[in-house]
Amino acid sequence: MHQALKRPLSALDGSSSGDATSTKRPTLTSTHSSNGVADIPLATDAEEDEPAYKGLEAFRKEAIYRRLLEARRDLARAEQRAASLTQSWEHSQRIAQDWQLLWTLLVEDLTKFQPSAEEWGSEREVLLPPTDHNQLAPVQVRCDAVHSVLKRIAARDPRNGIEAASISSRADALAAESAQLRVQLSSALLEGKRLSTQLSELQLSLQRAEKRADRLASLSVRRVERPNWEEEERRRQAAEDAQARAEADRVAAEAQHHQDNQVVPNGLPGVISQHELDAEREAHSAEVSEALAEAMMRLDEADNLRTELTSTRETAEELRAELERVPDERVLASVLYRDLHSHFTTASEEAERLGKSLATVEAENLTLREQLLDQSTSSNDAASAQIDELQTLLKGNEADVARLRGQRDDLQAELTERRQRDGVKSSQHEEMKELLNAREARIQTLRSEVRRVHMIIAARAGDTEAFQKAKAREPSDEDDVALIEELQGRLKAAEQTSADLRRQLEARSSSTTEEEMLVRASALQGELDALRSLLDGAGDGDVVKRKLEEQERATTSIRLELDASSEATKALCDEVDRLSAAFADTEKLAAKNVHDVAKLEDKMLRLTTEKSKADNKYFAAMRAKDALDNERRTALRTAERQTKALERYAEAEKVLSAQLVAAEKEAAVRKRAIEDQTTKLIEADREARLLRVREQDALKAKQHAEARLAALFPQQAEDARSAARELEQRQRLERQLERAQREKAEALAAAAAAAAAATGTNRGRRSSTADTGMQVDYLNSLLRCSACNDRYRNTILVKCLHTFCEECVNARVQTRQRKCPHCAAAFATSDVQPLYLQ
């Protein structure tokens, strides 16, 4: 039976598809067709028309392309910012290395003045280059250590220090310059903030302008926003052409006017003579000669100035050399040095006092920071606890709302079911009323037929009394008890009536007149003649009496049958009206039943269609479930592979960490080697200085020997040999010094390379990996559904052009909450379209 119902349903669909598909929306396909899932129709309402917007596909593709252009521009900006940050980081690293190198050189210079470890005190651990970068002392502490070492050096031997007055003036100048630089730094920071704000605003404006330019360049957007844009473009092009022609006409008119102005009075164009040309040429030659003479004069002056400048520079170099060769005794004995020394001492004491106050302030600042940290921690804990409570309450409210919504849906379903039952009951009640009316009419008809049959039976039997009773009884809708009571009442009334008639007959028989007797006699005579005619052949009185009785009975029966037929005719006439009304009601009821049967058949067909659709959806859902299971298994396998890759990366990271630790240890060893080489270089430098002093002494001795050469001929050979030995020793020490300097440079380069390889590569790789991951996460967030933030966008709402995933849209369609999650605009089932990202 189910198959028999399916065949006409499919035939009906096939016959109607030829007319319906021409004007109705095409069937939408599912976006999971690539996973093996069958197509699922999303819109089956035959009454919904196709949307009027024809360029939807082009508009959607151009919108996606504009979004991709914007993402590409953002990616380029992010890469540019990453490159600038990388350059800034490298520049900072180079500055830090240079600063560390300068600090090392400063410590080396201090070591030269204070070589013993007992005189260093506690400043040695602070000033010397640390082996561990994590234990690097603050810059302020190291500066304080430098100040204390310098004070100790100055207090130990005032003759080896620098003049106090110059140091004080230099310190004041540096303090003033530092204050000025701080003011400039604050103003530069404010300006930088303002410029960064302006830059961000300009970047936002640029992004808006780029979006606007993309929208203006889009053909579909122009068609939507300006339907008559082609006509406007033609008008603008025509206006531009007209303006260009007008400009060309104006230029031609100006050229013609200029040509007219060059015409001489006789109407011919002006011609310049050869004499005028020669005169002009001579004038130009004279001007060129004067310019050459002036140029030569200025060249001579420049040569003189260059000579004077050279001599001035030579004089300045000589004065600078004399200034550099000022003896230390004159410097120490100068008033400026004494003033500078006093100022330096005062500044040192003031620096110590400021250092103590700074330490106090830093201690207070540290205490306040700890208090602020405790307070922020407590406030954050309280806020987090309150947030947790509010989230718990919110979850409870959401659960209550979900429960109430479920109860509301259950009550609505129950109310709908009860309404359907009440409707069915009311229809059944109406049918019962109509059937009862038909029953009553049928009962009346049957009672009338029973009455006719009783009269016919009484007439055939000749029972006048029964005939009269049946004739007097009217058909009613009362029951048998009421009929019996009515018959008893009629019997009593008939008895009373017979008694009254008997009394009247007795009264009339006593008061009959002669005329009445004559009339009765004539009547009796006529009856007698009739009887005589009937009894002509009868001889016996009993026979005659019997015939008379039979004749009377037949007459009575015929008369009763005639009355019964007349009464039956009347009853049939009355029954015809009732039967016609009952037939009309029955016909209406039958038509209604036929209509209900047709509706039920349509409902059965619709339910069969819905069942087939539900079966298709079920099978499609099962196929989708199988596809999702396959995807889940694939994702699990991918996750396992990624987990293994992460484990490999973790192992590689451990290996790199071990390599980094080894590199740091090697860097520490090399730093110690550099320190040793630095110590050796300092010793070699000291020996070189001693050798230089010895060389100077030797030169002085040589000069003295040459002065005494004439008088000391016997000592000449020995002095030459000693000079040769000294020269050879000097050359050997110079070679050792150069070799030590090369070793020091190589050690410094190796240490810098190791430190850069240990820190820079990891940080650069991590920063670039983090920036790339952030960019990928940002692009993924653009492609994910904004309602669930889990699946990708694959469905678009045509009415508002917002995109979501198919599951979220189908959930809203099934729960009849057909509003856009983004703008809350209502949408129909036909507004749901698939979205294809290309």
UniProtKB/TrEMBL annotation:
Cellular component annotations (GO), alphabetically ordered: HULC complex; nucleus
Biological processes, Gene Ontology terms: chromatin organization; protein ubiquitination
SUPFAM superfamilies assigned to the protein according to its UniProt record, in alphabetical order: RING/U-box (SSF57850)
All residue ranges annotated as the RING-type domain in the record: 785-823
Enzymatic class: transferase
Assigned EC number: 2.3.2.27
Gene3D superfamilies: Zinc/RING finger domain, C3HC4 (zinc finger)
Record's catalysed reaction(s): S-ubiquitinyl-[E2 ubiquitin-conjugating enzyme]-L-cysteine + [acceptor protein]-L-lysine = [E2 ubiquitin-conjugating enzyme]-L-cysteine + N(6)-ubiquitinyl-[acceptor protein]-L-lysine
Residue stretches in coiled coil: 61-88, 299-326, 380-449, 720-757
Location of the protein in the cell: Nucleus
Name of a matching Pfam family: zf-C3HC4
Keywords: Chromatin regulator, Coiled coil, Ligase, Metal-binding, Nucleus, Transferase, Ubl conjugation pathway, Zinc, Zinc-finger
Function description: E3 ubiquitin-protein ligase that mediates monoubiquitination of histone H2B to form H2BK123ub1. H2BK123ub1 gives a specific tag for epigenetic transcriptional activation and is also a prerequisite for H3K4me and H3K79me formation.
Protein name: E3 ubiquitin protein ligase
